[in-house]
């Protein structure tokens, strides 16, 4: 069985227990025309409405989404950063193929960076921050157990954000944040397996314990395995959906 969120939640983040809008750099924003267009275009690409290699003409997209050309240009720039769109001089924008290799590479990079960040996070972890991380994990479990996957995913983002930002390495965090929107959209499209939710809870508990024990090596291994399991689950769901369409 594959669990799916009931709505596009790529804008959501929890602030003091409530869902609010955010960018993938972690800053609160209003639901601008640009962000709406970006999310709709990303979703349409992942749904296969634009085939790989398709030229994305700004005039055509402007007409399709009923907006001016400026937010279209901004959306294309953002999606280029996520890897969904290729922008070339004199040729404009085209759709990049989102296949197993693309997803695998994205998660492998994420695993390496998160493993490094969590190891360094142990060195600067304080009691209050540890309490916050543990609270976010418990809230994730509460939401997941009740089937509220939208709120659970928002807490999951906050859980990892609290850990990843501890070492104060903005370059590494920027690489991770660049793909949050894409990952959320992929999950909206392909869902989670039931076992994946169980794995997330178990991995988070193990990670919390490693952090409490100030065991950087153990935390690093857990973080790497956590991301690899996420990759395997998403690839399985992508394959299942492709076979179902045949």
What do these coordinates show?
The protein has 246 residues and is mainly alpha-helical. It has ten helices and seven strands. It has a three-stranded antiparallel sheet with strand order 4-6-5. A hairpin with a 2-residue loop joins β2 and β3. The two termini are 19 Å apart.
N- and C-termini, Cα separation: 19 Å
Shape: elongated
Oligomer: single chain
Q: Counting H and I runs of at least 4 residues, what is the number of helices?
A: 10
Model regions low in confidence, pLDDT < 50 over at least 5 residues: 6-31
- Radius of gyration, Cα only, in angstroms? 18 Å
What structural class should be given to the helix and strand makeup? mainly alpha
Percentage of β-strand residues: 5-15%
Task: Summarize this entry quickly.
This protein has ten helices and seven strands.
List keywords for this structure.
mainly alpha; two-stranded antiparallel ribbon; elongated
Write the layout of secondary structure elements.
Layout: E1 2-3, E2 12-15, E3 18-21, H1 33-46, E4 55-56, H2 58-65, H3 69-82, E5 85-88, E6 92-95, H4 100-124, H5 127-146, H6 149-164, H7 170-178, H8 180-190, E7 192-193, H9 194-212, H10 216-245
Antiparallel strand pairs: 1-7, 2-3, 4-6, 5-6
């Amino acid at each position: 069985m594959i669990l799916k969120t009931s709505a596009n939640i790529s804008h959501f983040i929890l602030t003091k227990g409530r869902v609010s809008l955010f960018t993938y750099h972690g800053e609160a924003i209003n639901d601008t025309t640009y962000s709406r267009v970006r999310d709709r275009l990303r979703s349409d690409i992942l749904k296969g409405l634009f085939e790989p290699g398709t030229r994305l003409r700004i005039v055509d997209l402007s007409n399709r989404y009923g907006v001016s050309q400026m937010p279209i240009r901004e959306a294309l720039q953002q999606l280029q950063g996520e890897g969904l769109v290729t922008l070339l001089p004199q040729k404009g924008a085209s759709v990049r193929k989102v296949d197993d290799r693309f997803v695998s590479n994205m998660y492998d990079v994420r695993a390496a960076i998160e493993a490094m960040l969590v190891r360094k996070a142990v060195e600067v972890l304080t009691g209050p921050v540890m309490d916050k991380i543990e609270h976010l994990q418990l809230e994730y479990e509460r939401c997941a157990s009740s089937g509220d996957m939208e709120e659970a995913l928002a807490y999951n983002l906050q859980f990892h954000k609290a850990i990843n930002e501890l070492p104060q390495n903005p370059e590494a965090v920027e690489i991770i944040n660049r793909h949050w929107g894409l990952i959320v959209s992929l999950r909206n499209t392909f869902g989670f397996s039931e076992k994946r939710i169980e794995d997330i809870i178990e991995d988070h508990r193990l990670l919390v314990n490693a952090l409490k024990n100030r065991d950087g090596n153990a935390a690093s291994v857990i973080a790497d395995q956590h991301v690899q399991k996420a990759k395997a689950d998403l690839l399985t769901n992508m394959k299942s959906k492709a076979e179902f369409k045949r």
